[in-house]
Specification:
The protein has 297 residues and is α/β, with parallel strands linked by helices. It has helices spanning 13-26, 32-44, 50-53, 61-75, 80-84, 108-116, 135-143, 156-168, 207-210, 215-218, 223-226, 234-246, 262-272; strands at 86-89, 92-95, 125-129, 148-153, 175-179, 195-200, 205-206, 227-229, 247-256, 275-282, 288-295. Helix 1 (13-26) runs parallel beside helix 4, helix 2 (32-44) runs antiparallel to helix 4 (61-75) and helix 12 (234-246) packs parallel to helix 13. Bound molecules: S-adenosylmethionine. S-adenosylmethionine is lined by residues 101, 103, 107, 130-133, 135-136, 152-155, 158, 181-182, 201-203, 224-225.
Amino acid sequence: MMTAPITADPKTIGMLIMWAQRSLDTSGLTNASQEARWLLAHALGMKHHELASRRDQAVSGEGLACAESVVSRRMAREPLQYILGTQEFCGLDFHVNPAVLIPRPETELLVQEAVREGGVTEGAVLVDVGTGSGCVAVTLATILSGMRIFGLDCSGEALTVAKKNAERHGVSNKITWKEGDLLEPMRECDLVGAVDTIVSNPPYIAEEVWGGLQPEVRDFEPRGALVAGRRGTEFHERLLHDARLFLVPGGLLVMELGQGQAPLVRQAAEQIGDYTGIQTVKDEAGIERVMIARRAG
Ligand SMILES: C[S@@+](CC[C@H](N)C(=O)[O-])C[C@H]1O[C@@H](n2cnc3c(N)ncnc32)[C@H](O)[C@@H]1O
C-alpha cells in the first residue's frame, strides 16, 4: 500500500503527525495515533514528548523522506519493533532485527520462574537454549554476578544480536555464546552432568497454524524461531530428552509452552522419565505458560 503524499508546503511536524496517523489508520492498524508518534519521533531523531511541543516546526527534506519510509514500512505490516530496532523486556531495552524473535511479555514469566525456583544462584551454571535476542540470558546475567551463563542458538545472526545486547547491558563477560543444535554445543564445554539450570523458550508453533498467524509475525519474524513441527511440541520433547545428560541431579529445566500444550509436554516428560516435581505455571491470561521439572536423583 502506498502512503498518500503530504500536499501542503512547508510541511510541519504537526502536519506530519496527522498524515502519518491517517495513513496508518487507512491500512487498518488499531493503534494508529500512538504508532504514528513513535515512528515520527524515531524518523526525526526526537524524544516522543518533543513532537507535541514542536508541532509548528518545519521538517527538512531528509526528515520527510525518513518519515515516509518508516510509515510505509509499517503500512506493509512490518512490526513496529523492527522499524524502531528495539523492544523492552523485563524493564531492559533490547536491540532487535529480523534475525531474532521480538521478545514477548509472556516470556518474562520464564525468567521469573527460573529465579523463583532457585535456579539463579551464586556459582550456578545456567544455559539458555534458543537465546535469540539474548533477552533471557542477558536479563538473568544482570540479576546476579557470580553465575556461568551460556546462550545457545542455531542461528549465527541471532547470536550477533544477542552479543550486542549483552554489551549494551554490560554483561558480556558473564555470558558465553555458542552456535549449534539445541544442547549439542555444551558437549564441547565439558559440562555433561554439571549444569544447574536450563531455560528455554523454544519454537512451539505447529506447522499448520503458521499460515493463519497475523502478517507481522508470519511475514517478518524468523520462521525457524517459531515453527516447531507437526505437533508444535517437538522441541520440548527433544529438550526433555537431552537435558537429562547435562543437568546435575536436582537440576532445573524451565520451558515456555504454547497454549494447550501442557498436557502433551507433561506426558512426554513422564514417558521420558528421570524428572520429578513436574509443574506448570499459568500466565496472566490463565494459560499454562511455563513448565518446570527437576532431574531426578
Ligand atoms: C521462540 S525463539 C526464542 C528467542 C528468545 N529466547 C526469546 O524468548 O525471545 C526460539 C529460538 O530458538 C532458536 N532455534 C530454533 N531451532 C533451534 C535449534 N535446533 N537449536 C538451537 N536453537 C534453535 C531460534 O533461532 C530462536 O532464536
